[in-house]
Amino acid sequence: MKKSISQKIKDFFFSRKCAVCGRIVEAEGRYICEPCLSIFRKKAELRQNGNYYYLFYYESDIKHAIAEMKLENRRHLAVELAELCKEPLFRLIREKNIHLLIPVPVSKKRFRERGFNQVEEFLRELGLPWRSIEKLRDTKHMYELLDEEDRRKNIQDAFSSDLSTDGKNILLVDDIVTTGQTTNEIIKELRKNHRPANIYVFSIALSKVFGKIKHRGDPA
Ligand SMILES: [Zn+2]
C-alpha cells in the first residue's frame, strides 16, 4: 500500500521521537535520546531472584522502550536495548557457563502480524547464537488475565521443543517477565524428555508482581 505524503511525514516524526520521553532524537538511527539512555545506563544492573536475572524493574520508562521495540518501524530499538544489556548479559553467560540460549517464542500468528520476534532481534544485535522452540498456539497476554487459574490454563502446554538439552546449562531469554508462568511452562517442556543441568532466565525487565505471584500458596 502506498503511503500518503502526510502519513510519511507523520512516520518520519514518530520514528525520530525518543521512545521514552518523546523528545526528537537528533542522532540518526537512534530511538532513545542521550539523556534517557544515560538514566538507563545508571539503572541497568544485573539483579537476581532465584534463577531469574534481569536489569530493570518493569516501570514506565523501560516499559515504553520495550513496548516500542515490538513495532515494525521501531524494531531497531533492539540495538539500544542490546547495548544496555551487553556487558551484564555476557558476564552472566560466562559465569553460568551457558551452552544454549533460547528466546521465548511468539506464536506463528503473532510472528506473521509483527514480522519478527523482538527477542530474536535483541539476540541478533548482540551477535549471540540461539536455538528456537515453538509456540504452538496464540495465547492471551498474561496481564489481561487476573485469575491465577486462568493464567495457568492460558499458557499450559503452549510450547514444544525438540532440542536435546541433556547436561546443558540453558538460558531462556525474554524481554519482560511478568508472573514467570510462561517461562515455567517452557522449563517444564525442556525438562519433559531431557535432563538439562541448569535452566536460568534472563529478561530485560522483571515485573514487581513476580515474587508475589510466584510464592503465593507457599507455606508461610
Ligand atoms: Zn528521551
Task: Tell me what you see in this structure.
It is a single chain. Helix 4 (77-95) crosses helix 6 (118-125). Strand 6 (169-177), helix 8 (181-192) and strand 7 (198-206) form a beta-alpha-beta unit. The chain is α/β, with parallel strands linked by helices and 220 residues long. It has a single domain, classed as 3-Layer(aba) Sandwich (Rossmann fold), CATH 3.40.50. The radius of gyration is 18 Å and the shape is globular. The protein is built from 9 helices and 7 strands; from the N terminus they run ααββααβααβαββαβα. Strands 1-2-7-6-3 form a 5-stranded mixed sheet, sandwiched between helices. Strands 4-5 form a two-stranded antiparallel sheet. The protein has helices at residues 5-15, 34-43, 60-69, 77-95, 108-114, 118-125, 148-155, 181-192, 210-214, and strands spanning 47-49, 52-57, 100-103, 134-135, 159-160, 169-177, 198-206. Zinc ion binds at residues 18, 20-21, 23, 32-33, 35-36.
Query: What ligands does this structure carry?
Result: zinc ion
Runs in which pLDDT lies below 50 for 5 or more consecutive residues are 215-220
CATH fold-level topology: Rossmann fold
What is the top-level CATH class?
Answer: Alpha Beta
Distance between the termini: 59 Å
Sheet-strand content, in percent, reads: 15-25%
Total individual domains: 1
Biggest sheet, in brief?
A: 5 strands, mixed
Q: Number of helical runs?
A: 9
Helical content class: 40-55%
Number of strands: 7
| SS-based class | alpha/beta
**Shape call:** globular
What do the pLDDT scores average to?
Answer: 87
In sequence order, what are the helices and strands, one letter per element? Answer: HHEEHHEHHEHEEHEH
Compute the gyration radius: what is it?
Answer: 18 Å
Q: What would CATH call the architecture?
A: 3-Layer(aba) Sandwich
- Neighbour order of strands in the largest sheet: 1-2-7-6-3
